[in-house]
Fold this sequence. Notes:
Elements: E1 13-17, H1 21-33, E2 37-41, H2 44-53, E3 59-63, H3 71-81, E4 87-91, E5 106-108, H4 113-125
Parallel strand pairs: 1-2, 1-3, 3-4, 4-5
Helix pairs in contact: 2-3
Amino acid sequence: MSKINNCYQGTETILIVDxxxxxxxxxxxxxxSYGYRxxxxxxxxxxxxxxxxxxxxxxxxxxxxxxxxxxxSCFREIKKVNPAAKAVFMSGxxxxxxxxxxxxxxxxxxxxxxxMIKAIRSALESEQEVIGDx
Length: 134
């Protein structure tokens, strides 16, 4: 993938969580090419463990539906560790099937690299919480 725009570059640490290895690797390579530090996890439990071991993590990009621990449950536990944590969720399911709340930042699979990098920069630059414990 070629670089889209320099305004999307960053140096933050991003935790990518998806049970699809190919998607994790593609996102990791893409974000590293923009200067981000990337940590990957294969499911929610792995993500929680890696989050605790690798602070600071500036953003979690995670699938909603995964084995062992789903993305929403995992993120609620991450928020207990760091109440200021931010996330962008990915899913192949429609938002109405996920019972998404208005503060639920979701990117639909399949997505383009441009959509993902815009969602990531938006979340990183946001001062508000992305999902609450409501």
